[in-house]
Specification:
The structure is a homodimer. By secondary structure, the first copy, chain A, is α+β, with helices and mostly antiparallel strands. Chain A has helices spanning about 5-20, 50-55, 140-145, 170, 185-190, 215-220, 270-280, 385-390, 395-400, and strands at about 70, 90, 125-130, 135-140, 150-155, 175-185, 200-205, 210-215, 225-230, 235, 245, 260-265, 295-300, 310-320, 325-330, 340, 345, 355-360, 365-375, 415, 425. Chain A folds into 3 domains: about 1-65, no CATH class; about 120-280, Sulfite Oxidase, Chain A, domain 2, CATH 3.90.420; about 295-425, Immunoglobulin-like (Sandwich).
Chain lengths: ~450, ~450
């Protein structure tokens, strides 16, 4: 199995890398709605005995999974619309095991200004506003403060089950789960001394767009982190190097990357991003814009996969809740008529992805697979019909409405297994589907 | 901070990669006992907005940490001695955060035959011997069986506190911690049907050396995994792609990589590796050759680091036990005269690295920092003197003996902070130090 001649291998590797770096034309960056056309640009790894892989390990050349580049976009505002040179990308959920998302494959949302190239020796974090002692921390100073390491999911509000989602990456790929390490924001706020009357903080990024977000002070003092570590190494550039806010259980947009400034204030600010898109005068949009509700999705078998054989299979997926731990996951193989309890087969941690598994024998009949999550607060993940009824929405509104008029889309995602083993989306088709991320 | 001209960036990146791949001469592979001469060969990352980093994310160009290549070796047997083209490498513990070791930086021990280049479509696992139904599993079949995801440390028996260890990587770098996903071996053995009288299993690898190891059947039926996933993605080639044995809490050598065969037998085999080095007639070497005892080490501040300022610091490190969970970690700043309890600041999981932290004010005086671990079985990590006394060894024997005559080296590692802030090894010098890994 390792019989390839070394010099031949070296040639192959050199050629592959050169192709990836030199021959990749800007044309390949066109947002086509999928990664298939560009996946071949990731350098193949031909020789895991090479010295580079001793210093910093690599994947097998048989493993070529990539993130999926975001396609269509309905962004209307230039400062918010994606940068075509640096698009957003989704996590390939169906290909992953366990609960930790490999950092290289963790979804990343990018806006117009791309990723700043920050020298950590020059980066500082300012804490100011309604405090007794405004402070500026260097990265070295932050590293000398008490820290914690917490496993938390991070999800974009753009995730939504959809009849047109061909794969679980299409419907739920805007999320990941990492072990984050950093200083509790409460430690920094205690150092600065929060004044009476303060009720919110504003977090601001060092990117070209100066992304900002308002976070309730109670949350900031609870479990928010100023994170410099992700899965053991420094936070990567596309996740906010060298410093990001981590707001467990809240929408992705709260987790400000390239964190530069914390301002303590007495009201939420309508920052550019919030004003233009993420807050509207309609109070309905406020209904659950903080903690994500209980959620789960089957990643295997899931859309676009195929069962090749009758007999033993496993139904597996991820469950999570912005409110705390997952208590229980139930799986149905008959479209929700009956459920049975799945096993939680990995660590069960608060506000973290939780892996579930249920052995299943497939006899070749059609089946509709779906999961539902019960969290420790007693909240049960709703069906599409329950969700729509609760909020007084039609199906057309559910799928024809952009995110800013919709809440968290945590209804159940069914997958249909055909008698040929082909897995497709189990939601009924609708006429109009608007990209919820827009 | 992102003002570098794009074309300049592209030029830099292209140049760096080309240097890494083309200009790396075999001469750089000489085992010099450190990675400093070759670290520059890891391709620098100049542009995180490049399309390759969208598909598969990368580190900041300011983050250049690598594994440390193993240096000296006392291996006498050709099939066991390291392959100079593919040396072993240690985890850069002092640079890491949290408890999950980045897979690219996770230590890897390699023997003479290097890393096989296995096509998973052709790989199978055979279960045979004292079973009712000998079975052969393809990778696809294994993926259709019930699985679990568990966070576990993996440690080479070669880890040993040593007066000559300049850094924590030198003394303890032969370990890492990952989330492993795979099929419980008990599931496979139940499928095959273990016959009465069976008491051991033999695990065999698909590498050129056909590495084999005997594991007690009771352990195999307890928590051993046939793992295909590591930190969310397929196990990497240098960790056993596509399949490895994971034997939680046992010495690294039990965790057979590139797993090809499980044979159920009624006695441990003296396989080539075991016969030549890892088992000896001396019963003393059997004294604790299974579960690792309670252990811990301070990673910051640690050898070769320097405290640049008086005032607030944190003392942080890792604790672990092969027997279960860590119950408590205590830290001393006066060489063991007094201890105080550190906080466990991350997930506390069984047979997993556990991160601890203690705030500490450094006033500029000399200090000797050390930690000790108490595990849930009530076992307390010993000092060097306690360890030596218990086993009736002199200090010369402790450091002048190779691993096969020594047990697990879990005594306390002190680090000395000088008045200039320089951190050095706090163990008393000895004349003879033999590489315990030999």
């Amino acid at each position: 199995m390792s019989g390839t001649h070394p010099s031949r291998r070296r040639f192959l590797k050199k050629g592959a890398v050169a192709a990836g770096l030199v021959a990749a034309p800007p044309a390949a960056l066109e947002l086509t709605g999928g990664s298939s056309t560009v996946a071949a640009q990731v350098p193949a790894v031909a020789d895991n005995n090479a010295i580079e892989s001793v210093l910093y390990g690599r994947r097998s050349r048989f493993v070529t999974t990539t993130r999926e580049i975001e396609g269509r976009s309905h962004y209307q505002v230039p400062r918010i619309r994606p940068n075509p040179q640096r698009p957003s990308a989704k996590t390939p959920l169906a290909e992953l095991t366990g609960t930790i998302t490999p950092t290289s494959l963790h979804f990343t949302t990018q806006h117009y200004y791309g990723i700043p190239d920050i020298n950590p020796a020059e980066h500082t974090l300012m804490v100011e506003g309604m405090v007794d002692r405004p402070l500026v921390f260097t990265m070295d100073e932050l590293h000398r403060l008490p820290f914690v390491s917490r496993v938390h999911f991070l999800e974009c509000v753009g995730n939504r089950p959809s009849p047109r989602g061909a794969t679980v990456t299409a419907t739920h790929g805007r999320m990941g789960c990492s072990e984050w390490t950093g200083v509790p924001l409460s430690v920094l706020l205690a150092e600065a001394g929060v004044r009476g009357g303060a009720s919110w903080i504003i977090a601001e990024a060092a990117d070209g767009g100066r992304h900002t977000k308002s976070v309730p002070l109670a949350k900031a003092l609870d479990d928010v982190l100023v994170a410099y570590g992700q899965n053991g190494e420094p936070v990567r550039p596309d996740h906010g190097y060298p410093l990001r806010l981590l707001v467990p259980g809240f929408e992705g947009i709260y987790n400000v990357k390239w964190l530069k400034r914390i301002k303590v204030v007495d009201q939420p600010y309508l920052s550019f991003q919030e004003h233009s898109r993420f807050l509207t005068p309609d109070p309905k949009t406020q209904r659950d814009s903080y903690d994500f509700g209980p959620n789960s999705v089957i990643t295997r078998p899931s859309g676009d996969q195929r069962l090749e054989a009758h007999g033993a299979h496993v139904i597996s997926g991820l469950a999570w809740s912005g409110s705390g731990k997952v208590s229980r996951v139930e799986v149905s193989t008959d479209g929700g008529a009956t459920y049975q309890e799945a096993e939680l087969v990995g660590p069960v941690l608060s506000k973290a992805h939780t892996r579930f598994c249920l052995p299943w024998r497939w006899n070749g009949d059609e089946a509709v697979l779906q999961s539902r999550c019960l969290d420790e607060r007693g909240q049960l993940q709703p069906t599409e019909a329950e969700y729509a009824q609760y909020w007084g929405l039609t199906r057309g509104q559910l799928y024809g409405t952009i995110q800013s008029q919709l809440g968290h889309c945590n209804w159940i995602q069914p997958w249909k297994v055909g008698s040929d083993g082909k897995v497709t989306n189990g939601l009924e088709p609708v006429d109009v589907v608007v990209d919820v991320h827009a």
